[in-house]
Amino acid sequence: MDKYKLKFENNNSKYIQIYNHIKQLIVQGQIKEHEKLPPIRKLADYISVNNATIVKVYELLEKEGYVYKIIGSGTFVSSLNIKNKEQEVNAVNHQHMIHFESGNPSKDMFPLENFKSAINMALEKDGASIFEYDEGKGSEELRDELCTYLKKKKINTNKENIQIISGAQQGIDIVCKGLINYSDVVFVEEPTYNGALEVFKSRGAKVIPIPMLDDGIDIGILKLKLEKIKPKLIYVMPNFQNPTGISYTKYKKKKLIELSEKYDFYILEDDFISDFTFDSEDNLPLKSYDMKNRVIYIKSFSKILMPGLRIGIVDIPKELQKKILWAKYSSDISTPALIQKSMYYYMKYYNWEEYLKSIDKLYTKKYKQTKALLEESLGDKLKISKSQGGLNFFLELPRGYSSQAFYNFMIQKGVCITPGTYFFDNIMDDRFFRINIANEKIEDIEKGITIIKNNLEEFITSYKNGEPIRSNKIFY
After folding, report:
1. Most buried among 5, 6, 48, 207, using CB within 10 Å?
2. Is this model's pTM higher than 0.85 or not?
3. Is omega for the bond preceding 317 within 30 degrees of 0, making it cis?
């Protein structure tokens, strides 16, 4: 393990430093072809970072072709000429790469000047006290302001139920630390968000996927599973789901809450962009229908404000608050007060509602234009999920083709997509991929879709006999 040790520098993010360090070990041959990388938790503990940081590093290494995953076995170094691979990737990066893999909002959307003023206001009004440890649940003023915000989403709660968190990923993590024990069962949508899958598995949970239909989770299969298995909770994204863009109907939202009461389980709702309607008939959060206190509601501001703020909330049923609050304490004690107070002053004094309207207009225009472009350019060649809105589109290659091969192929053409393997716990047929439109401008989205359209036939012809089977050296 000694070779994985590194000294962090303050001028760059930790995950990028770890990524570059491991990549260099691979390129220099210090980690051999088909050698297994350390398990996520073991490496995270060894270099003193969060599990989620290592998950992100391994995902980036896989996207760049340096490693591959074998479900149930781990992550291994790829069988390829690493130096040539690095030269190829660098050559493409000198061109204008279209990034359909990034979920980060475009930087030109960030309200920098107003938020800078909010930061200054926080410093002036709160002074040195803003750098003390904050009380566990978070700023009382911000929680009050967030209750007002949530009421407009028809979520009637109070500040005592709200916990300020450092982003949605931490929200998922502390809920699991508070509730999930080894061998507990967690139901998830299939496909679903990879970051949540990794958290559930790190707690030793048994993950059971329930397929998604065009109008939400398959209630029929869910009922059949519930007759045989009792989950501790089910993790869902009812509005503009990641990666499919599918939204639940009002019937399915209410039915899911009804089933949670009947079979005695909790629902973990991950809400990252329900603020906007898009094509949905009902964009209200599942929590707004929750009369039984069955929904643990996570709201992230990463996609509607600035992801680097790392701020969000969990609205927690009263009987679970103590467990989840202590899990938050054990993670980072509290979300930085400077961030919390700046968020409060921004929401209070810098026209939060007008800001949301401007983002709604921008995202809706981008979504509708992309949907039309995809249907026109690729609708007769690929199956496209029935998205009702959001920032993601999920597409399906013909049977027998691999999204990982398609990813590698499109990288060389200047377009980066996300292979579907990231969104399944145990995928048997890898032919799905995701396009995310958060980061790119509409003219670059159009350019990227045109590149996919113009090169799709070449891919289908070139890969009609499938990919070469990897060496079996790792098994002996």
Report:
1. 207
2. no
3. no
